[in-house]
Amino acid sequence: MDVAALRRRAERLGLAPGDVRLFRLPPQALWSLATYGLFGRYRHWSRGKAYQRLRLQGELGLQRIYELIVHTEPPQAYVLAGNRPIEDLLVGAHVLGHADFFHRNVWLRGRDPDVARTVLLHRQRIGDYIAAYGQTAVEQVLDTALLIETHVAQFGPQDLVGTIARRAHLQEWQRDCLEMVREEALYFQAQERTKIVNEGWACFWHLRILRDLDLAPPDRMEVALLHSRLVAMEPGWLNPYALGLEILEDIAVAAGAARGEAPAGRALENLLEVAGVVDDQALIRDYLSQRTVDRLGLTVPSSGEGPSRDVNDVRRDLLRQVGAAGRPTVEVDQAVAGCTLRLRHLHDGRDLDLPDAESVLGEIQKLWGAPVLLETMVGGQRVCLRHDGQEVRREG
Q1: Which of 64, 234, 268, 311 has the fewest C-beta atoms lying within 10 Å of its C-beta?
Q2: How far is residue 382's CA from residue 113's CA, in Å, rounded to a whole number?
Q3: Whether residue 128 is found in the same domain as residue 178
Q4: Could you give the CA distance from residue 245 to residue 8 in angstroms, rounded to a whole number?
Q5: Structure confidence by residue, pLDDT tens digits, 273-283
Q6: 18: alpha, beta or left, given left = phi > 0 and alpha = psi -120 to 50?
Q7: Is the bond into 26 cis (omega within 30 degrees of 0)?
Q8: How far is CA 320 from the centre of its chain?
Q9: How many domains does the chain have?
Q10: Are residues 161 and 19 in the same domain?
Q11: CA 229 from chain center: how many Å?
Q12: Which range marks the domain in which residue 180 is found?
């Protein structure tokens, strides 16, 4: 694979992917990377379960990972050893689209450029704590931290993990463990909130880069087949590649580009501006069209006789799913060390699973060291869950 030649073609089309380091790995190594997100991270039993699930799917032929790209500086692309040359060609063009997006998008630009070294240092420190305080004690802290790691915030009010790390009466090693989990969670949160637009961007540009190549007809047919598999929609599953690509195609056409062609001039400028500022929520909120809904066959349950394909209904449903993968959002309302930690669930129309919420509150309470109260809505009524370390009470 001549990545330098592909990069030159990408640059002629208006991209700026910069340097990309390429490595070939066997399937087992790619499964590990897909599980951990970065090589060298600290080990945890929950990730072992995820690895075994990926391994089983791969060995049964249910899933094949052609490549994974890591947002470092420069980006590192890990390609499946044994790919056919034509597969490598598509993978190379796709990777360059990702690399351009990493450098362009405000949510990803400027993230820790040396994150690979950062996670290695985290693993070393956690290993030192295990040696000093025991596996069980350290895992108890990590278990709770990983339960709530989605509740971190790059901007805005103090997040749950940061609040506990900085305000609870903890030993310094416990505080450090929470801060390490938070730092890594923020890195991956930025990628999670741009998953659809990032994959759509890579698909949009790998089509243009490969179309610019002088491929033989059989190779063009093979590229088309590989691409169609990548963007295939299956019932009950939202394909981020397909959704991101279709929305970006609409944006390019609306700016004056011919559908399927490489945008130029003002159309290219407009597309690059959009890619620089949107996350998945903004992409869907501002640019999802009825055409994309119809083309992808997107539907949502409705109160009528059948599912709805109206773009407004689909948009509302998608906005509840993307960004945090549909997980609940909890903010800190009040936090004074030694006093009740007050949390607020940002209700989006879906009630919490109360037994599960009570269990998580119990784990938070162990770290906080004082009662924890969570305010939410159930069946349209305000409900407060209060865990005092011994039992949980529900207050209407």
Answers
A1: 234
A2: 44
A3: yes
A4: 22
A5: 999 999 999 99
A6: left
A7: no
A8: 15
A9: 3
A10: no
A11: 21
A12: 115-192
Taking CA atoms, 79 is separated from 172, 199, 217, in Å, by 40, 16, 25
The SS3 of residue 252 is helix
Place of tokens 């924890």: 372
Amino acid at 112: D
Flag whether 307 is in a domain: no
| Final residue in a domain of this structure, among 192, 227, 260 | 192
For the sheet with 67-70, list strands across it. 21-25, 76-80, 67-70
CA distance 118 to 137: 23
User: Long-range pairs for 167-175 at CB < 8 Å and ≥24 separation?
Assistant: 167/335, 167/336, 167/337, 168/337, 168/367, 168/368, 168/369, 169/337, 169/338, 169/369, 170/367, 170/369, 173/129, 173/132, 173/133, 173/138, 174/141, 174/367
Q: CA–CA separation, 262 vs 211, rounded Å? A: 9
**Length of the chain measured in residues:** 396
Tens digit of each residue's pLDDT (9 = 90 or more) over 89-147:
999 999 999 999 999 999 998 777 789 899 999 999 999 999 999 999 999 999 999 98
| Residue 300 β-bridge partners | 308
User: 60: buried, middle or exposed (CB in 10 Å: 19+, 13-18, 0-12)?
Assistant: exposed
Inside any domain, residue 316: no
Quote the pLDDT of residue 274.
Answer: 97
pTM: 0.91
